[in-house]
């Protein structure tokens, strides 16, 4: 299988996106977009890209056509989280049994002594208001070297939910119990399974297509021009994951710092889009990040073609 998936089989020929919204597709500085489909609508939940002390809220954007977007301000604020003060990052939305869950990281425990980590909020509607479900983080320590940030939640076809997460060059997967607010264990009794692929930095994301599991992640420094997205494929949601290719990177004619992605499949089609953030070429402030999306195409063997960023 690995021979089949070698980088040489990934066609490097860029294809121009057919996205019509134009990039950035919404106004404002935002980053780390994670997309979900709720009740026939696309919902994007991003980080508010501003200094950590001002990252006290999350906004969301909804659309029926990926072209016209409605802003929903303050779907989650730190006023509704007892333990989080600021640095609310990288929301991950998922629905289960009519409840809408929003996983988030807060307080940047890498650089602060306050309690921090990955929390979970829940709402009855996609637009919230989301309320802290636990009154404390779900994960508040480093495990296997992974900073508890940049979570993504994936529910497999058998109903098992997994959370992929980790900053600081380490990537873990954990099982979520059906309540979506507590951690399960793997068959060997462990809770945190390290799956770090080559060059991993942060921003892991999982999706499934034709029975294959795709792990995507970001490489490079988040404020640098070379921030980029790579991926691996596996027959199992827990890996092993071996890097196949870098599929999204800066383009000196378009934008720099393109990374921290999510993926959506248009229902009933084999049309896929990658959502990500990027920085305008003229911007030097690391937080000046904008939301973009482009078509993502697959080769016949399931590998992902390199993505051409849409100019506008
Ligand atoms: O937006 C805050 C942080 O920057 C995210 O957690 C990282 O993935 C990077 O995008």
From TrEMBL:
Keywords: Carbohydrate metabolism, Glycosidase, Hydrolase, Polysaccharide degradation, Signal, Xylan degradation
Similarity annotation: Belongs to the glycosyl hydrolase 43 family.
This protein's name: 3-keto-alpha-glucoside-1,2-lyase/3-keto-2-hydroxy-glucal hydratase domain-containing protein
Biological source species: Streptomyces osmaniensis
Keyword Hydrolase included in the entry's annotation: yes
Taxonomy, superkingdom: Bacteria
């Amino acid at each position: 299988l690995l021979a089949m998936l070698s980088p040489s089989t990934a066609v490097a020929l860029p294809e121009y996106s057919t996205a019509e919204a134009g990039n950035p597709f919404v106004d404002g500085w935002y980053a780390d977009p994670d997309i979900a489909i709720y009740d026939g609508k696309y919902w994007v939940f991003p980080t508010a890209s501003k200094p950590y002390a001002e990252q006290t809220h999350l906004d969301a954007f909804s659309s029926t056509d990926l072209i016209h977007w409605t802003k929903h301000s303050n779907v989650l604020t730190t006023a509704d989280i007892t333990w989080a003060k600021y640095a609310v990052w990288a929301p991950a939305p998922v629905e289960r049994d009519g409840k809408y869950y929003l996983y988030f990281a807060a307080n940047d425990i890498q650089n602060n002594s306050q309690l921090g980590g990955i929390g979970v909020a829940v709402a009855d509607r996609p637009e919230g208001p989301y309320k802290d479900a636990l009154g404390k983080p779900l994960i508040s320590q480093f495990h296997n070297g992974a900073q508890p940030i940049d979570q993504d939640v994936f529910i497999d076809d058998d109903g098992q939910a997994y959370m992929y997460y980790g900053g600081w060059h380490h990537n873990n997967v954990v099982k979520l119990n059906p309540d979506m607010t507590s951690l399960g264990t793997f068959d060997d009794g462990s809770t945190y399974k390290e799956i770090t692929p080559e060059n991993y930095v942060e921003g892991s994301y999982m999706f499934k297509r034709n029975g294959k599991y795709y792990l995507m992640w970001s490489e490079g420094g988040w404020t640098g021009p070379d921030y980029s997205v790579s991926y691996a494929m596996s027959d199992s949601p827990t890996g092993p994951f071996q890097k196949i290719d870098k599929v999204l990177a800066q383009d000196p004619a378009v934008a720099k710092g393109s990374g921290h992605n999510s993926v959506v499949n248009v229902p009933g089609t084999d049309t896929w889009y990658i959502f990500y953030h990027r920085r305008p070429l003229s911007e030097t402030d690391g937080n000046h990040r904008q939301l973009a999306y482009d078509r993502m195409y697959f080769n016949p063997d399931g590998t992902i073609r390199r993505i051409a960023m849409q100019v506008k």
